[in-house]
């Protein structure tokens, strides 16, 4: 390189996030990192984390676990099975994937079944059980609201 030549521009290495093998610093906690490969927190001395740093990579900072779960779920990466908030993020994703028409149809179907059970329970000619034993307990329930239906579907996912 001649004296008059400009030096090459400084470039910082850029890495694509390998979602299944990445590390995050969550909510400013510098004592540990979350590992998507381990599906949990690991100490700063973890061999995978040490190798990650040796490659020149740095953990991604993220504001909260809830935000981390949302990001990982969106990328199709496993989240802790024992964490109810992580599991709620999975159910939210699965419910959003349910087409709106299907949700409306399922809710209507559930409410029609409720109406049939109410009819059988209250009609003496149809209800052959002397005390209505054996009929579903939903027979005296009101129809589901959309919010109740969404909560029920998420429980089934």
Can you characterise this structure?
This protein has 157 residues and is α+β, with helices and mostly antiparallel strands. Strand 2 and strand 3 form a beta hairpin. The protein starts with 22 loop residues before the first strand and ends with a helix. It has a four-stranded mixed β-sheet. 42% of the residues lie in helices and 10% in strands. It folds into two domains: 23-79, no CATH class; 100-156. The radius of gyration is 27 Å and the shape is elongated.
List the helices and strands and how they pair.
Blueprint: E1 23-26, E2 32-35, E3 40-43, H1 47-54, E4 60-62, H2 65-74, H3 84-97, H4 100-122, H5 146-156
Helix pairs in contact: 2-3, 3-5
**Tally of helical segments:** 5
User: Numbering strands along the chain, what is their spatial order in the largest sheet?
Assistant: 3-2-1-4
Q: Please tell me the total number of domains.
A: 2
Number of extended strands: 4
The chain-level structural class is: alpha+beta
Unreliable residue stretches:
7-12
Largest sheet: 4 strands, mixed
Helical fraction: 40-55%
- Portion in beta strands: 5-15%
